[in-house]
Specification:
mainly beta; 99 residues; 6% helix; single chain; Thrombin, subunit H; six-stranded antiparallel β-barrel
């Protein structure tokens, strides 16, 4: 993860906000989108860092629902998983916004 931190080229701000992440799960019967609650850790104009109870697959595309203005507006942010590390109940994951 330190290598990822050193590669950042945008200023990150701390983010202490629960986010809803939507991902496609082809292993469910029937295959369906799954909504997960994750913890936002930091954010920049290019992506977001999250903490979640499980790892994600690098290259996976997910949708994050980012709530603005105290819940008045929900912004859908399609993002690509660029790294995911950790285990045993908590993983840190970096996502790049797809614009």
């Amino acid at each position: 993860m330190n290598e990822q931190v050193n590669r950042r080229n945008r200023e990150r701000k701390q983010l202490d906000q629960r986010l809803t992440l939507e991902r496609w799960d082809p292993n469910r019967a029937p295959a369906m989108n799954v909504h997960l609650e994750v913890q936002g850790v930091d954010i920049s104009s290019g992506g977001v860092g999250i903490s979640a109870p499980h790892a994600f697959r690098v290259g996976e595309v997910v949708k994050i629902e980012y709530v603005l203005n105290g819940g008045e507006v929900t912004l859908p942010l399609f993002s690509e998983i660029v790294w995911s590390v950790g285990g045993h109940g908590m993983c840190r994951t970096g996502l790049r916004f797809l614009i």
